[in-house]
From TrEMBL:
This is Phosphoglycerate mutase-like protein. It comes from the Eukaryota. GO terms for molecular function: phosphatase activity. Belongs to the phosphoglycerate mutase family. InterPro entries: His_Pase_superF_clade-1 (IPR013078), His_PPase_superfam (IPR029033), PG/BPGM_mutase_AS (IPR001345), PGM_Phosphatase (IPR050275). GO terms for cellular component: cytoplasm. PROSITE patterns: PG_MUTASE (PS00175).
């Protein structure tokens, strides 16, 4: 988990107008591996809705350990994930409930798949997703009621932020894709000091977690 630089608060806002948002990029997926070798591989049908690589699964396990050890899991009220396979694997792998002894007595947050925070909708098979019924069979504990078609990337992020403010939860995780997380931060960056903006909006690494406090000033 990356610790962001912080400065003393300059303003005071009612807690009802604030949310703590934890942004997580999915672990390394197979299209990341093959795309690093040959960009043309991203057009290969065998990478349809690409899943995590062995390294990606290891990254997820490590982040899960960090989230448990830091006490963050106890504070999370909702996990929002892109409905692509690699992000759902990451969301469930880090924040989901298992049958292991380490989960005994642990209150795991609801995980909700939301179409608004999925990757770009283009021609690359790795960015196409399975049907909702297939996803439900693979991840029965994830809520797919919000997995519907929506608008394009930049506009979707504005809609997504607006949707976030309709949620009653105060501390939320968003598991998505690097480009989408940067678009989210671009929507939020207007009030940031330039030095903070530069650090905050740099490219995400696989399975990297960044935390921000957002304020509704309307």
């Amino acid at each position: 988990m990356q610790k962001m630089k912080t400065t003393a608060a300059q303003f005071t806002y009612p807690w009802q107008l604030c949310k703590t948002v934890h942004l997580v990029r999915h672990g390394q997926a197979m299209h990341n591996v093959e795309g690093d070798i040959n960009r043309e591989a991203l057009l290969s049908p065998h990478l349809f809705d690409a899943q995590l690589s062995p390294l990606g699964l290891h990254q997820v396990g490590k982040l899960r350990e960090d989230v448990h050890a830091s006490g963050l899991l106890k504070r999370i009220e909702l996990v929002v994930t892109s409905p692509l396979y690699r992000t759902m694997q990451t969301a469930f792998g880090v924040f989901g409930s298992t049958e292991s002894n380490e989960d005994a007595g642990v209150n795991h947050p609801q995980i909700m798949a939301v179409e608004l925070c999925r990757d770009r909708m283009g021609v690359r098979p790795c960015d196409m997703r399975r049907r909702v019924c297939e996803c439900q069979a693979l991840f029965p504990s994830i809520d797919f009621s919000m997995a519907k078609s929506e608008e394009e990337m930049a506009a979707r992020m504005v809609l997504f932020i607006k949707w976030l403010w309709t949620r009653p939860e105060q501390e939320i995780v968003i598991v998505s894709h690097g480009i989408m997380l940067q678009h989210i931060l671009n929507v939020l960056e207007n009030d940031c000091h330039p030095t903070v903006r530069t650090d905050l909006c740099k490219r995400f690494g696989n399975c990297e977690l960044r935390s921000v406090l957002i304020v509704d000033k309307r």
